[in-house]
Amino acid sequence: MIAIQPCALLLLVGPDWQLEAVSANASMLGDVKPASLIGQPLADLIGSKAIHTLRNRMSWLSRDESEVQDFGVQWGDVILDVRATRGDRHYLIEAELAVEPRLPDGIGMVRSMSDRLVGDGPLDLAEQAMRQLTALTGFDRLSLCDRDGALIASAGRQLSPIEPQHPAGPAPRVQADRDAEPVPMIGEAPASLIERAAFLAASENERDRLTKHGIAASMSLPLRIDGKQVATLVAHHPAPRRCGAERRSVGHLFAERVAARMARMGWAF
After folding, report:
1. What domains are defined for the chain?
2. Is the pLDDT assigned to residue 14 strictly greater than 90?
3. 221 neighbors 172 (Cβ within 8 angstroms)
4. Which are the contacts of 60, defined by CB distance < 8 A and separation ≥ 6?
5. Contact at 8 Å (CB) between 38 and 189?
6. DSSP-derived secondary structure letter, 41
7. Residue of 100 and 169 predicted with greater confidence
8. Could you give the CA distance from residue 152 to residue 171 in angstroms, rounded to a whole number?
9. 120: number of Cβ within 10 Å
10. pLDDT of amino acid 269
């Protein structure tokens, strides 16, 4: 059964902008029964102003694997951070409850963090970057792993020894609370598109693995150079945690700039 985490809701929209699948917590947007939303226009759920803004933002999607984000969006009485991507004929929209206000200057933060990187070696840069990302995200441990899951650099408090990471998939993953009750999906949705959702509920095996190592929250962000995935940024925390979507985006962009800089120095990912 496909399920997501309760801190986010998931909507699958067809080419006619009607809802084909929704998460069972869609009622956070108002007095609606999620099952009754199937086949209804998305505008009926989020409002005409919100749908206009969302469609404009989604027009930026250049290819099927790309994504767009919008932060601090108001749908009804709820403030959300929105992420959207598309498949052949569908749009996947993921909206998480905002945990902090908009950052004053996200791009400026990336530039400032990049300017503070010093040293002549790729590993020095990677270790400095992990320390900065630990401070930025508030996670106890940040790690940079290669495409095979092998550790390149890490920073922060060690929770417990963990085995090498499995090779990461192409989609970001955020596990805000290992023990949160999964929220089922209602309606039909292409599995290949749903698999690209960031807030999919963890499998029982994954929850057991996190529990074994004292990890209650995790985050995995794929890093790309020229569209090719070369590494993964992995975060762990001993208690439930979810940093804001814009803060994650700043960290993600910074980490990709670090990976590109390492590659220019000769590092082979």
Report:
1. 3-97 (3.30.450.20), 106-178+215-264 (3.30.450.40)
2. yes
3. yes
4. 68
5. no
6. B
7. 100
8. 20
9. 7
10. 86
Place of tokens 């399920």: 3
Reduced to 3 states, what is the DSSP secondary structure of residue 191? Answer: helix
Q: What's the token pair of residue 48?
A: 């005409």
Report pLDDT for 140: 94
Q: For residue 139, is pLDDT > 70?
A: yes
The 10s digit of each residue's pLDDT in 188-225 is 888 889 999 999 999 999 999 999 989 999 999 999 99
The span from the CA of 105 to the CA of 110, in Å, is 9
Mean residue pLDDT across the chain? 91
Query: Cα separation of 40 and 66, whole Å?
Result: 26
Q: Which two tokens stand for residue 205?
A: 């095996």
Mark residue 251 as left, alpha or beta (left: phi above 0; alpha: psi -120 to 50; beta: remaining): alpha
> What's the CA gap between 254 and 142, in Å, rounded?
13
Tokens representing residue 56 in the block: 């404009």
Is the confidence at residue 251, as pLDDT, over 80? Answer: yes
Q: What is the mean pLDDT of residues 233-256?
A: 96
Pairing of strands 78-86, 91-97: antiparallel
Q: Residues in the chain, how many?
A: 269
The amino acid at 62: S
| Residues contacting 37, CB < 8 A, separation 6+ | 19, 22, 26, 44, 45, 186
Do the Cβ atoms of 42 and 33 come closer than 8 Å? no
